[in-house]
Every structure is written in C-alpha cells, then in structure tokens.
Design goal:
- The complex is a heterodimer.
- Chain A is α+β, with helices and mostly antiparallel strands.
- Chain A has two helices and seven strands; from the N terminus they run E-E-E-H-E-H-E-E-E.
- Chain A has a four-stranded antiparallel β-sheet, covered by helices on one side. A three-stranded antiparallel β-sheet of chain A has the order 1-2-3, with no helix packed on it.
- Chain B is an alpha+beta fold.
- Chain B folds into two domains: about 190 residues, no CATH class; about 100 residues, no CATH class.
- The longest helix of chain B is centred in the N-terminal third of the chain and has 53 residues.
- The chains are: A alpha+beta, B alpha+beta.
- Chains A and B meet through helix 1 and helix 2 of A and helix 1 and strand 7 of B.
C-alpha cells in the first residue's frame, strides 16, 4: 500500500519513488511564468523603442523636406507660418483643396502626411514658422534680408520631437 | 519518463518563446534598417535630381539661348512623369565668342521611372527603376557624326547620344509639378518602397483613409492596397533661378505677384490674379479663375485653354503694368498663351508661352 510521507516521497513497500511535489511544481511554473512576463515586458519595450526610432526617422525626414521647400519658395515664404494643433491639443489638418494656392496645398499635404505616418496624441506639436533673423517684426516681403525657417514636430505625446532651423538669405 | 517529457515540453515552450521574441525584435530591427536605408537613398536621389534641376536654363553667352530648358511629360501607360532639362555645363561666361571655349557642354538630362531606360511607355504599375539619361547636345569636343565626338575644338553640333544610368530601384511613382506663378519652382514627389515585405497584414498607402496628400494620379493607382511593403513619399522643391533671372531681365512678365491683372476684362480689383486650371483641378476643369492669395473665384471659362494646358501650369501671375495676355488657344502640342510685355525702353514685345512641352 503506497503512502505519502512528510517529504512527499511515495513509499510503496520496499520501493521508494522520488519526484516533485505539487507545491514544487507550482513554484517552478510560477518562476517560469514570471520570467516569461519579464522577457515579454522587455520585448515590448524594445519593440516600442524601435517603433519610436522609425517614427523619429520619419519626422526628421518630414522636417528636412519642409525646410527645403520653404527655403526654395521665396515668393510665398512668409505665408508658411502656421500650426496645425488646435486649442484642445489635437491635430487638425486643413482639407486638401485642389483649387487652393500652392502654399495652402503644401501646408495641407504636409499635415496629412504627418498624420498618416505618426502616432497622434495630446501634446503633439506641428509648427512651421518663418521670421526675420533680427527684430521682432513678422515676416514680410520687405522687412528682412535674412530669415529663419523653423520646423517643430512633436509626436507620440511629445516623446518624439524634432526641431529644425535654417537661415535663408533673401533680397528685401 | 514523465519528468523527461515535462522537462522537454517546458524547454520547448521556453525555446519557442525565446525564438518568438528574437524573431519579433529582429523583424523590427530589420524594419528600422530598411526605413533608414529607404530614407537615405531617397534623399540622395532627390539631392541628385535637385542639383541638376537647379541648373535648368543656365546658358553660355556664346552658345545662346536654350530652345526648351524644361519639359515635363507623362509616360504612356504608367502615369509616372519624366522631366527633361537643359543647361550649359562649363566655366564662367566669356563674351568674346571668337575665342573658343572648349570646356562648355550643352546638356540635356532626363529623370524618369520606368522598367527600362529610354522608353516612353512603361508598365501600368511599379516598382520601377529610376533612370537618369544624359545627352550632350553640343559638346566641347567636335564631330560631325552623332554619337562619335572626337577630340578637338568645339564646332557644333557634337552630339553624344543618350547615356542612361540606373539611379534607384523600388520606385512606385515619380511626379513633378512646375509652378511658374509662385516663382519658377519645381516640386518633386517620389514614392519608394522597401525591398522586402514586413508584417503579417496588407496595409494601404496612404496608411490612413481619407488622406489626400498624394498626387491625384498616384491615389488613383491604389498603391499598396494588397501588399505588405513599406512605403514613403519623398518630396523636395527646387527654384529654377536661371529661368527666373532670364525672365526678369528680358521679358518682365512673371516677376511680380499681388498685382492687378487683366485678361480681356476677366479679373479686376486689387490683389486679383489670373489662374488657369486644367485636368488636375477636378471641378475646375476648363476654367480661368480670378482671385487673391486666399480665395479663388472661377467665373470665366475657357475650355480651349483648359484642354491645352497641362496641370503643371497652375497659376499665372501677370502684372498688368508689365504685360497682358493677347491671345490663347490651341490644343495639345499647339497650345500657347501669347502675351505682350512692356519693354524697358517703351513699346510692347510679343512673346508666346508654351507651358510644359
């Protein structure tokens, strides 16, 4: 007749069988489970981090392309100043209007491109600003020979951000 | 035996989980590398194109004006576009044309996305290769036979023949927009895709619905509807400083904006300008529009003009004091706008404009 001893070994006549108790088994599974959770936690963090890297890479490219275009368009340069972030913190893109002027079309396209490729949440910033290098006057066709183009992009609630500036020389 | 089986099962689970994690991370890592490579190559290609396009219209004093400094055309069947530009490549101007300038080449350079070089008809969908084709129309070395320029002094014509080079692959679309009105700028837009597919589900491009930032022809192609490739759009804007300078000094028509316009009594009032729309303007097909920077009012219609002009000439800005439109018309290759420009010493000079041939 087999019986369970205090140490958990099963004694059956003269033959003794040794193995794991239920508690040992449960503990082992719990430890393995905890390590899985920890490993998956790390994987998740690494995954998010790589996703942020892709997002930031995309933002850098967007910012650079925006600065390039604004720098090239000397005629409409001052009209590029604007922000797509509404008072509540969300991003609101203007509709793309094929009848609009090139400046408005580009602004709408840039905003939609960013909304397409970036994670949007409160605290984001999408701003383009063109101002004279010196003085506090707003940008106008006649008031500066040097202008600063500034693009500030924040995505994912501000966790990823890109600030890019370029000085351009124009004839007043 | 039971313990062994349990141990093997647990080990297998651990190994499977470890492999799953590794696979996930590796996939993401590969994706980062691929995105980085796509962006790097995309920017390099755009920089290369921008450098060439920026030179458009520069001409040597002795070689005279360029016949057609810029041309944008659609490639049959593909909906992608080809840009062809001309400029003189050589040392600074020399106004003594009796002296030979053996180092000046008149170049004609084309950029286009197609499955093979030199074709004007391509498959309807990508991916395409991006090619740069260079021709030397008048070379610094002489020959009377096309394609066999010999060494010696320049005696035109010395034609090199087209020489195509593969610039990039994986290009789904390439579009150009030439906007004369806002200062002689060319917008370049290129969509490039990854070498491999990523993820497990097909994703659309644009990624979110209701986005209309792409060119209308690209949207119509439904890029990425059923595949798992990564895609990104690369864009840049280049000012054609040589063309702007040419017009400013010779025919001062397009050099100012925000001026009163006159087109047969069409536009009037301060800050009104004339806009010409065509097929790209959807509901403005066949219309001439007057308006200001923020609002465009399409009242006048001119079907002939709309048919004639391709989408690249979106805005015409003509200061009334310096020029006026005297005639327009024609369809396709015969399309033109004839304007009269006031000369510096008085009187009017007539000039025909042929948009984007």
């Amino acid at each position: 007749m087999a019986k369970l001893t205090a140490r958990g070994r099963v004694e059956s006549g003269s033959l003794q069988q040794s193995g794991f108790t239920l508690i040992e088994g449960v503990m082992a599974i719990a430890i393995v489970g905890i390590s899985f959770v920890a490993v998956f936690g790390l994987v998740s963090i690494a995954d998010r981090s790589l996703q942020n890297t892709i997002e930031k890479e995309r933002m850098k490219m967007q910012a650079r392309q925006i600065v390039e275009t604004v720098a090239a368009d000397l005629q409409g340069q001052c009209d590029y100043t604007g922000s797509w972030v509404a008072a509540g913190g969300g991003v609101q893109c203007p509709p793309f209007d094929k009848k609009a002027m090139p400046v408005q079309q580009r602004m709408a396209r840039w905003c939609q491109r960013m909304e397409d490729g970036l994670t949007t949440s409160r605290g984001d910033q999408r701003t383009v600003r063109v101002r004279p290098l010196t003085g506090g006057q707003p940008c106008s066709a006649s008031n500066a020979s040097q202008r600063v183009i500034e693009v500030v992009l924040k995505a994912n609630g501000g966790r990823a951000q890109v600030v890019m500036k370029q000085v351009v020389y124009v004839s007043p | 035996m039971v313990e062994l089986l349990v141990a093997m099962v647990v080990s297998s689970i651990v190994a499977a989980a470890a492999y799953g994690s590794y696979s996930l991370i590796k996939n993401q890592y590969d994706k980062v590398i691929e995105v980085s490579e796509m962006h790097g190559t995309g920017r390099s290609v755009l920089d290369l194109m921008s450098r060439d396009i920026r030179q458009t219209g520069y001409h040597d004093y002795c070689l005279g004006h360029l016949s057609q400094p810029i041309r944008i055309q659609s490639l049959a069947g593909a909906l992608t576009e080809m840009i062809t530009i001309q400029y003189d490549d050589g040392p600074a101007l020399n106004n003594n044309c009796a002296v030979q300038q053996p180092n000046v080449d008149r170049m004609r350079i084309s950029y286009y996305a197609c499955d093979r070089p030199g074709a004007l008809a391509c498959p309807p969908t990508g991916p395409y290769n991006l090619y740069r084709t260079k021709e030397v129309l008048i070379g610094s070395t002489w020959s009377s036979t096309q394609g066999s320029c010999a060494s010696g002094g320049r005696q035109a014509p010395c034609y090199s023949g087209p020489n195509s080079a593969l610039i990039a692959d994986g290009v789904d679309d390439l579009q150009f927009t030439y906007d004369v009105g806002s200062g002689y700028v060319v917008d370049i837009s290129m969509i490039r895709r990854s070498d491999k597919e990523y993820g497990s589900t097909a994703k659309p491009f644009p990624r979110k619905s209701g986005r209309h930032y792409l060119d209308s022809r690209t949207e119509g192609k439904g890029l990425g509807k059923q595949d798992r490739y990564l895609r990104d759009e690369f864009f840049s804007t280049v000012i054609l400083r040589n063309l702007a300078a040419t017009d400013l000094t010779q025919v001062p028509i397009f050099n100012a904006i925000e001026e009163t316009l006159s087109f047969g009594g069409g536009c009037g009032g301060a800050n009104q300008k004339l806009y010409a729309f065509n097929a790209d303007g959807s509901n403005t097909i066949g219309k001439l529009c007057c308006g200001s920077r923020t609002e465009i009012n399409c009242l006048a219609t001119a079907t002939a003009l709309a048919n004639a002009f391709n989408k690249h000439l979106r805005v015409l800005n003509i200061p009334y004091t310096q020029g006026k439109v005297v005639a327009l018309g024609g369809v396709g290759p015969d399309a033109k706008i004839q304007v009269q420009a006031r000369k510096a010493n008085g009187g009017w000079q007539t000039k025909d404009f042929f948009p984007q041939r």
